[in-house]
Amino acid sequence: MKFKSSVEQRFHELSGEKKMTTKIPYITVDNFPRLGLFTALRLLEWVQENPLGTISLPTGKTPEYFIRWTSYLLGNWEDAKVKELRKKYGLNNDRRPVLKDLSFIQIDEFYPISSSQHNSFYHYVNKYYIQGFGLDPANALLINSEAIPLHEAMHYNEVFPDGIIDLSLRFREAKNSQELIQQKSVFMIDDWCINYENAIREKGGIGFFLGGIGPDGHIAFNTRGSDLFSTTRLTPTNFETQAQAAGDLGGIEISRNKLVITIGLDTIVHNPDTVAIIFAAGEAKADVIRDALENEPVNFYPATVLGKLKNSRFFITAGAAKGLDDSVQEFFTTGEWTEEKSERAIIELCKKRDKYAHHLTLEDLQNDKYCNMIPGLDLHSVKHVINRLTKKLEQGCAGESNQMFYHTGPHHDDIMLGILPHVHRLSRNETNRAHFSILTSGFTAVANPFMIGLLKDTLHFLNEDNISMVHYPDFFDTGYKYKWDKDVYHYLTKVASGEPHERRRGICHRVVRAIVDIYGVKNVVGLDEKIRTVIRELSDNYDGEKDAPHIQRLKGMIREYEEELVWAHFGYRVKNVHHLRLGFYTGDIFTEQPNRERDVLPILDQLRKLKPTVISLAMDPEGSGPDTHYKVLQAIAEAVRLWGRETDLSDLRIWGYRNVWFRYHASEANVIVPVSLNAMAVMDTSFTNCYLSQVDASFPSYMHDGKFSELAIRIWVDQLKEIQLILGKDYFYQNPSPRIRTTHGLIFFRELGTEEFLKEARELEKSVEGVV
Predict the structure, then answer these.
(1) E-assigned strand segments in 574-670
(2) φ and ψ at 369, to 5 degrees?
(3) Chain CA centroid to CA 269, Å
(4) Are the C-beta atoms of 339 and 53 separated by less than 8 Å?
């Protein structure tokens, strides 16, 4: 395919794409930051040709590198390196783009939300686009909740005091005077949306649209099922969108009730000459990208509407493209044939036909375009795959002795959700030792209502004189530093005895220690005053507001206590659970990259001290998805690389696990671990009893409206169903091994040697090279 844009043509050539069968053209890049560079160059190319044009740009985390690269290119236009870069990637016009005369259209916004809040999109576009790119505010159409008129010029807090807007008032009679005010205000908001739409169309529509794509396939806030002819409107969202927004708004409890104002699908495609680009990174987006690109326009897949435009494009990373038929074809036809390809081909055939492997016929194999590629194809090819998967299961059942395990997690529940049943089983062998290292503070996962409730309970126990340790003579000087194991043991004892009141008292002991440690209070009176001060500060914060550093630390210490509770279930003491609190984790929308002194050396120090024989880590693809996972992986890889310069690591093994964010295909994993109903119950019960801040799932996955433990179990069960298609159900329930007979779920992970791990990590690390 030939692209009119020289930038697009150049990136297409670099992608090596040979065949494109999708309904909408796409171009792939190999990593997330390069995706930002690509979109930045394409915008600037368009601006050179349309200096008076109208642009509409996205919010969220996906634009991070687009914003960085655009600012860098504009600020260093005549720099030799930038000139070379422009030439390399097809931006051939040397004239520096001028953005100040462009018109800007805000895509969407939560409603109602204060425009002064850092988590409002109004604030985002003003900071990063109007100010950051030097646009003229007078030429901008923005969605400012404060400026949308309501009945009798009332403020939205007066009209909707609980922040909830009942859209059924559009269609039913108001029941009281307050509802009448709300009803009239809803119609006024609707009128405002009509005027916003008209203002866009008076500008000729959008000239350059850049947007992300949500977990349900939404573009702007046009969620799955949106009318392809929709315009700007006030509308509710769906669960997937609410879960995605929970982190910005302070929890699903807030986002579930928050409406949005969004431009419509027809707004985007109104101008037939619009350059409309959707950009996406990471395997987590692979399914929605496939659905958007391989279907005709249909409301179930909102992004398919872009098929109406001649200039629509998808800019995506290789991971995001992984589900496309083109990418699957390339996987099987590029390079030498491998065992992994045979496994994947036969597994996918069984899934597609819903047929057990031992029922496949030679005709089935020959008629499948990928199985047909297997060298020397016959029914023995199926038996070979069955044998390989059996060996992976045997590897997962094998025992381990005299090992030092260094289990790492980016967040406080990652190890549990990834490999807890395996860790639990190996812990039964007392020749094995284990340490658990959580690399970030995890404070963003603690919702304010939970923290306020915990602090109020702590005050109650103090006032009732039920926290006796505060009366010890040296407690406020040094005593608070000791017997942290006692807090853990007390809590778990009360779990066993079924005393929720005493469990709460147990965690409040740890809250007291944390308050003394953070704030240096010196007596009970000071402790009481400080707790009340923190409660007031949290209560005054708006939903989703970034916490002050001292509150971040307090919330983080609660997460750390929760992690200690988990591993105490299996006999591990507090000293075996390490909290590294790496500094790149700040709670900002765009976080820093790990650096050696701050983020790598603490890990290296632990490796030197503990001398692990096995390191487990979250191994997620690309620099996208859970951003923290990727950055932690790079920090660990660098620490291992440095450790390898002073120690022989030829026997070190790396276990790369995934949990609720990404899944391995069975052909990718080389270890498969059986999971029993008992192991599932242990995991779910320990999650519920220990991760108290997570039980209400304030920040859920878009894949499940509930606890992460429930989602992890669902994934394990799905993975068993997949393997049962290959091995047969009878392999499990008639197996001579009791462990296999009790299998009701499976965990997939990869075991790598040091060199193989560092090579893969290096490939991932390339995704941040050259980042501005």
Answers:
(1) 577-579, 614-618, 653-657
(2) -65, -25
(3) 29
(4) no
- Tell me the pLDDT tens digit for each residue of 411-461: 999 999 999 999 999 999 999 999 999 999 989 899 999 999 999 999 999
Helices 754-765 and 627-644, axial angle in degrees (round to 10): 130
* Distance of alpha carbon 599 from alpha carbon 605, whole angstroms: 11
State which H helix or E strand residue 276 sits in.
Answer: strand 275-280
- The DSSP output letter for 439 is -
Amino acid at position 605, single letter: D
Q: What is the DSSP string of 565-591?
A: HHHHTTT--GGGEEE---TT--S-SSP
Q: Look-up: residue for tokens 């209502």? A: 449
CA distances from 124 to 62, 223, 589 (A): 13, 21, 10
Classify 278 as helix, strand or coil.
Answer: strand
How many other C-beta atoms lie within 10 A of the C-beta of residue 419? 23
**pLDDT for 588-622, tens place per residue?**
777 777 888 899 999 999 999 999 999 999 987 66
Residue 54: how many CB atoms within 10 A of its CB?
Answer: 21
Tallying the residues shown for the chain, one arrives at 772
Take residue 735 and report the two structure tokens written for it.
């197996």
Q: Looking up tokens 């590897």, which residue turns up?
A: 395
**Cis omega before residue 112 (within 30°)?**
yes
Smallest CA-to-CA distance from 210 within 275, 265, 262 is with 275
Within a 10 A sphere around the Cβ of 572, how many other Cβ atoms?
A: 19
Strand partners, 748: 672
CA 309 – CA 269 distance, rounded (Å): 7
Q: What is the DSSP letter of 301?
A: B
pTM score above 0.85:
yes
CA distances from 54 to 73, 325, 719 (A): 20, 34, 48
